[in-house]
Amino acid sequence: MKKMISVIVPTTGDREEEFQRLCNSLDKQDYKNFELIVCSQKNHEKIESILQEFHFDKNHVKLDKLGLSNARNIGITHAKGEIVTFSDDDCWYLKDSFSNVIKTFNENNSDVACFQMFDPTLNEYLKNYPVQSKSKLSMVDLFSKSSIEIFINMSTVKLEDIYFDVNFGLGAIYSSGEENILLSDLFRKSYNISYFPIVIVYHPKKISSQSHLSYQHVISKGPLFSRIYNKPLGLILLTLFFLKKYSKIKNPFKLYFHSLKSLQKYNTKLLNDLEK
Description:
This protein is an alpha/beta fold. It has nine helices and nine strands.
């Protein structure tokens, strides 16, 4: 029996054309045993209207709370597939994406497989990907991975081990890093996370007119490092981050102290939550 792939898509329904493009790409897959789980957080009627145009297996979960990580956590409880991935509403897939994913899992001993993203309009990769595959990624490798690159083998990974920290991700206190936390948690539980140099998903490459990193991006780093490691190491990594990105940070000294406060506040909140 063919393995099913579950595609979980959180959306606020604000990008109708992009979501339509995603659904069209799913409809054209040469591997047909998949399901789409859409977790809409707003504009439910718009999403439902688009979904009605397609006849593949789908499930529309309507939420009344914003938050990317929360939506993904809810979405995965509805998944029926042996393989799960987390899509964005503005990405889309190649015709043979899912058949390549299935082939990769069949030929390799991976609990989690990470692939490549590509922008076909600019004809550019979204990252500087390694040319060679890697059967077992290190903790450091995980920081370069994005959610839509990740496919999880539910036959070997326990459902309760797949959890996006709701303090991180779009709509949360800290705007990024949720996929890095997920992968690091799985890594510590001895799951085998691999990388394969295969383009699986298309996504527009962001071309920013800003020469500096955003405030929210920088402020999230201290809590992210602290969440994945611990407070002392988080402080060291935060300092190294500032030294490396110094030229790309506006008012780096001022923002460094703001980041220290953010790190301290996160650890205080974490300690209070543990004591409850």
